[in-house]
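Appendix B, record 7
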Amino acid sequence: MRLNRIAALAGFVCATVLVINSARRANLLPETALTHAIAPFGALTGLLTITALYLLIRRTAGTLGLVGYLLNAAGLAGAFAIEYILHFVFPYLGGGVISGLLAGGTGRAFLVTSVVLLAGVLTFSAAAIRSGALPWVGVILYAVGMVPGSLRNVVPVPVFLAGLVVAAVGVAWMSTRLWTAAGEDELPLAPAAARPARA
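Structure tokens (predicted):
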């Protein structure tokens, strides 16, 4: 299996987790140990997918694409950390402790992460559309959905959750491009036997 297809599978997992997270927070799915445990992994699998997408468009995305990728990747890494804290740390702390953390450096770190993610999503999406290498509808859905998806503490909860669902559709759409990609730079995971030269 090629690396692009692994990244595409990660994208499909990311989209699924985003939809599950949205449904859980909207009380359409029950809060279970499983839905609680998988919540942070939407951002983590998304990071793998965005990396593969950047590698796919890097030749035509230019400096804008590199800057967008770095910001987007940093934002997704930060989002994973935030989700991990929310699901595996905060539940074991008292309300007063959590409020104190959010009012101090932790809250500021959350805000910076949101701003970095938003800037990265918009910059990367602009570069991706300009490159012409990704389906523009999927890119736009990702960008539009991640605007409220990056601003969870600023926008109303229904808008935030709807944004995550729209972004999930965009991620899945772009992941189909990864699945079908057969670029020359894509390498198999293990060394392959000698192959005939391409015509």
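Remarks on this record: Residues 101 and 107 are 6 Å apart (CA to CA). The chain has one domain: 3-180.
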